[in-house]
Amino acid sequence: MTLVVVLLAFVTVPMSISGAAVALPDIGEDLHAAGAPLQWVMNAYNLTFASFMLVAGSTADLVGRRRIFASGAAVFAVGSIAAAAASDIMLLDLARALSGIGAAGVFASGGAILATTFDGAERTRAFAALGSAAGLGLAAGPTLSGWLVSGMGWRATFGLHAVLVLVALAGVGFVAESRAPQRPRLNVSGAVVFVAGLGALVLGAVQGPEWGWASPGVLLLLAAGLALLVAFVVMQSRSAAPLLDLTLVRNRRFLALCMVPVVTTFGFVTLLTYLPTYLVGAGGFSAQRAGTVLLLMTAPVLLAPPLAGGLVNRGVSPRLLITLSLALFAAGNVWLTVIGPSTPVIVFAGPLLLVGLGAGLSFGVGDGMAMSLVEPEQAGMATGFLNTMRIGSEAIVIAVFGAVLVSLIGTRVDSPELAEKVAAGDLSGGVSGVLADGYTHALHVALYGTAAVCAVGAVIIGIALAPKRRETTPTAPAPGDSHVPAEVA
After folding, report:
1. pLDDT given at position 477
2. Quick one: CA torsion of 151, 153, 158, 161, rounded to 10 degrees?
3. CA 16, 389, 181: angle at the middle one, nearest 5?
4. Greatest CA span in the chain, whole angstroms?
5. What is the DSSP letter of 376?
6. In which band, very low, low, confident or very high, does the pLDDT at 459 lie, cut at 50, 70 and 90?
7. Residue of 183, 212, 228, 208 lying closest to 58 (CA atoms)
8. Which long-range contacts (CB under 8 A, 24 or more apart) does 376-379 make?
9. 317 φ, ψ to 5°?
10. How far is CA 302 from CA 131, 269, 363, in A?
């Protein structure tokens, strides 16, 4: 029952990201909104989701992981209900921000609950199921949202998210409570500085494409965000009860595993976000057909995590699977440069399957391995930091990738305004063939760039995950050495 409750919530939270994107056109038409206010239906959720993750995880270790999970689920449900009832775009944006805070509580404590409930092979299987659940939510979100928007209107999308989480909340009584044995006071000043710093950094990245990367507002946000995060690190090094224990970050294997979702964002999430727009704009696909084609990339994400978990339990090295998954991202992104405006689906089906397999191999296995490297009393903190890297990188990398696409398209078209329209899938502002070729060129260059990032990431992370050399004679552990359970050693 613990696994069922956590998995149901982990299906819903990413579904609220991918599903809401499909509803944006109808939301804009119904609430008479466009541009930045409409985009903040997505941005507000991602901003608070990323910013509150670490705080939620560390708080869960202190006050109880089940308690934070239940509180997060309740806040998420209230935010989703408020979004479904919103009569104004600003109210909808605020509701989505509230949902993001709740999502942070669910994600940070959910992984910690599994890490403290299961051990050994059971833990590997549980985290493999968690990876499949998150992949299912991400993949099914656009399809379910499309059906609901067509049949019942966009409000039904947020209503579905609320219902699913409320069902999970009803089963929380079956989940055992756990917390750290020692419970110091929450580092409130550290929490405020971290939320403000990461929030400013993500906000600067999100607004960069709209305001201009060299605009004073964006530069101020980015500089303030970096300064506050540096101040946060200094504060944690001097705190007796830190929000983030810096020994976690000094553990090279744990830090390497936290970088896996960052590389995954480059190799997988950017395609999930921008490839449908290319297929509709340059390829002339309908939205429904583009979503169907995307199943080539999302289906392996549902099927591969249990396979990867089974391989780990049979003795295959998690390090090998994770390194292979990142290498598959690099290969798949390079191979995808065969795509063009009139390319048959069968030609680029291979790279989509390859990228999806790469994502499926690392989903769950990486998280499970990361959690096996930390002490149980730090499970919430570790999960919070891991997911902060995941969600924060998604918000920043997606914004930067979009800006790069617009800039590259701008080298082939007449104006920046036209480049933005083309990147959004609107090729009506000029000769469609010329615009489609410009869009294709930009996408190919961007794919080569993401492939390079994934290849370098695979090498660095593979090296960092190498186990420490065994001593030939028993020696006392060195100061600062992290605890490594038997199943990982």
Report:
1. 43
2. 0
3. 95
4. 73
5. G
6. very high
7. 183
8. 376/115, 376/116, 376/178, 377/61, 377/180, 377/181, 377/182, 378/61, 378/180, 378/245, 378/248, 379/61, 379/65, 379/111, 379/112, 379/115, 379/116, 379/178
9. -70, 125
10. 8, 15, 9
Supply the pTM of this predicted model: 0.80
pLDDT at 405 over 90: no
227, two tokens: 């300064």
CB 266 within 8 A of CB 410: no
pLDDT category, 483, cuts 50, 70, 90? very low
In contact, 27 and 144? CB cutoff 8 Å: no
Q: Evaluate if residue 51 carries a pLDDT over 90.
A: no
Instruction: Give the residue carrying structure tokens 């696994």.
Output: 3
Question: Quick one: residue 459, left, alpha or beta (phi over 0 = left, psi -120 to 50 = alpha)?
Answer: alpha
Nearest C-alpha neighbor of 229 from the set 43, 453, 50: 50
Rounded Cα distance, 38 and 128, in Å:
35
Fold match, 1-176 / 244-466: yes
Identify the sign of the CA torsion 367, 372, 377, 378. negative
Q: Report how far residue 301's alpha carbon sits from residue 285's, in angstroms, rounded to the nearest whole number.
A: 23
The CATH architecture that domain 1-176 belongs to is: Up-down Bundle (1.20)
* Domain chopping of the chain, boundaries: 1-176, 188-242, 244-466
Higher pLDDT, 215 or 363: 215
Instruction: Provide the pLDDT for residue 486.
Output: 38
**Architecture of the domain spanning 244-466:** Up-down Bundle (1.20)
User: To 10 degrees, what angle do helices 432-464 and 379-410 make?
Assistant: 150
Using alpha carbons, list the distances in angstroms from residue 471 to 135, 300, 319, 476, 481.
40, 40, 21, 10, 14
Q: How many Cα neighbours within 13 Å face the side chain of 129?
A: 19
- Comparing CA positions, the residue from 66, 75, 60 lying closest to residue 161 is 75
Radius of gyration of the chain (CA): 22
Q: What's the pLDDT at 50?
A: 85
Mean pLDDT of the chain: 85
φ/ψ of 263, rounded to 5, equals: -65, -35
Q: How far apart are CA 260 and CA 254, in angstroms?
A: 10
In the chain, the percentage of residues whose pLDDT exceeds 90 is 35
pLDDT at 288 over 80: no
CA angle 248, 253, 257 (to 5 degrees): 90
Question: Strand, coil or helix: what is 57?
Answer: helix
Token look-up 């919430």 returns 380
Residue 24 has pLDDT above 80, yes or no: no
Using alpha carbons only, give the angle 133, 41, 208 rounded to the nearest 5 degrees.
Answer: 105
pLDDT at position 372 is 82
